[in-house]
Amino acid sequence: xxxxxxxxxxxxxxxxxxxxxxxxxxxxxxxxxxxxxxxxxxxxxxxxxxxxxxxxxxxxxxxxxxxxxxxxxxxxxxxxxxxxxxxxxxxxxxxxxxxxxxxxxxxxxxxxxxxxxxxxx
Length: 121
Prior knowledge:
By secondary structure, this protein is mainly α. The chain is built from five helices and no strands. α1 (2-25) runs parallel beside α3 (62-76) and α2 runs parallel beside α5 (95-120). It is globular and about 50 Å long.
């Protein structure tokens, strides 16, 4: 039960932070979801650092890893919003924004995880 509570608290904190970043950075004029892009990249970097530290000589406990990686990063990042925003690009015929947003999100997201793991060493 304690572990579920840790995930719940971490997820709530991550979700609230994602809400505020999206509110201030998503651009309704251009339609470009900069906030979602930023949280997904930052979340990828953070989960790399967190899991790298967890694997490194047990620097983080299982409970800390649940709170930070599963909870916070799970609530902070948002694949469902990413998918919806891409659907909106396709529906409006904005194939260039769709391609750029998708490719950059995946490429930089993967690089951010690798960077986080490297930084944790």
